[in-house]
Amino acid sequence: MTPQKMTKLMICAPSWFEAAALRRVVTEATVFQCGTGTKAGARAGGSPAVRGAGALVVAGIGGGLRADLVAGDVVVASEVRGAGVTYPCPGAELLAAELRSQGLRIHTGPIVSTDHVVTGKERGALAATGALCVDMESAAVLAAAPGTARAVVRVIADVAASPLLRPASMGRMGTAMRALARLGPSLEIWGRAAGPRQVLLAGPRSFCAGVVRAIDVVDNALAQRGAPVYVRKQIVHNTHVVKDLASRGAVFVDELDEVPAGSTVIFSAHGVSPAVRAEAQRRGLDVIDATCPLVRKVHTEVRRFADDGDTVLFLGHAGHEETEGTMGERPQNTVLVETANDARTVAVADPDRVSYLMQTTLAADEVAELVDILQARFPELREPPSDDICFATTNRQEALRQVAREAGLALVIGSTNSSNSLRLVEKAERMDTPAHLIDDVSDISLQWLIGVDVIALTAGASAPSAMVDSVIAALRGLGPVDVIERQIAEEQIQFTLPKEVR
């Protein structure tokens, strides 16, 4: 693609005083007074000035429909509902995140446009549809100006609980106008980020076989045994997965003493130490083990090497559940190596009886440096019989490498406690590509996107694929998006479920 050009931003404000409030703070965009009411909105939307804009924002005051909306609250439309037609605004969360960074109280949801002032019971009826705010122009403007990046933002001036034309209305109007003026800088940032771009979609991405298995374990346990089902730690490291399972009756606990005696408890995909297993047996818990088979393989290797008399050097990250569970197999014979300095200084009982293993979610190039140092220090160093870094981790890292080298920005979808997702960010950064870890669309900063016309996009092995779809949809709210998928490998492997939940 050619380098991204600055998109021409047009801000449509209905009344003179709304337009004046925005003009005082807007320096790059054009503020167009579109007039009040449906007919005025339609005329404005059809005007050459508005139709020629590359990005369009309708901004002004509006009426709150929900009881918790107060004067000065800002509603960013996820969609605008007109007379029988709905206009999606897929980039709403991107703009909402930028506005929140300015300290404004932001809500995202539907805005409905009517051809008259709405009061009383009619407001209640509109609120029952899920709409947050009502105005008279937005749908008409969007209908007449199709095909542009668009957003609709309304500041609540008039609240659902209070009738119009009361003395208090003037105070609320003043509050709303002050908030409206604060929108200007963020709207211009949105405009600078708008424009066409490519998304290079790395494949494989999202759930690996071990994560699918772990989630299926919880799903089946809930279906077969009913709620609650207890899960020690997060079943996988992703906030969306955990939230979804919790909504269906999974109870996540940090330690087994939080689980009622005799209850069902599931061990997470990251594995546990023998001490945890013994505690579960002592308390009479009904255990279902969702440990990833590839993690279990490393547990087996620790026992074998340690029982042969080796000091096992475990390459991993302190505090990670996989590290704790694996080293807990033979704690007296296992030493953690996190950094190159650790590798240079680690002490062992017998330099001729040393082996190494590693956390399954590390980066291969990160491990290679540590292994080179250890092999130079310990010539008899024994290695695992097969690579401990799981195939899914390796595939996702290589897939991102293929696309990050062509991109101006890499976005990695995953939670902050996801080791494999963090390694993906580091992989892109080692290629000098700016990279960010995001849990979902709301974590994306519009400022990252300014001047970037090619984005590399992937998702860690514990991140749902739906998050990828939502990011692409949000980017389409800023302009046309050409999605190009680069698939470097097909992952066909499936792991058998534990017998307790088959």
Q: Helix fraction?
A: 25-40%
Secondary-structure content class: alpha/beta
Count of alpha/pi helices: 18
The description of the largest β-sheet is:
5 strands, mixed, barrel
Question: How far is the first residue's CA from the last residue's CA?
Answer: 50 Å
Proportion of strand residues:
15-25%
Q: Please compute the radius of gyration using only Cα atoms.
A: 28 Å
Oligomeric composition of the shown chains: single chain
Low-confidence stretches: 1-6
Strand order of the largest sheet: 3-7-6-4-8
Describe the structure.
- A five-stranded mixed barrel has the order 3-7-6-4-8, surrounded by four helices. The chain has a five-stranded parallel β-sheet with strand order 18-17-19-9-20, sandwiched between helices.
- The chain is built from 18 helices and 20 strands.
- 48% of the residues are buried.
- The protein is of the alpha/beta class.
- Helix 11 packs parallel to helix 12 (321-327) and helix 15 (391-404) packs parallel to helix 16.
- It starts with 8 loop residues before the first strand and ends in a 15-residue tail after the last strand.
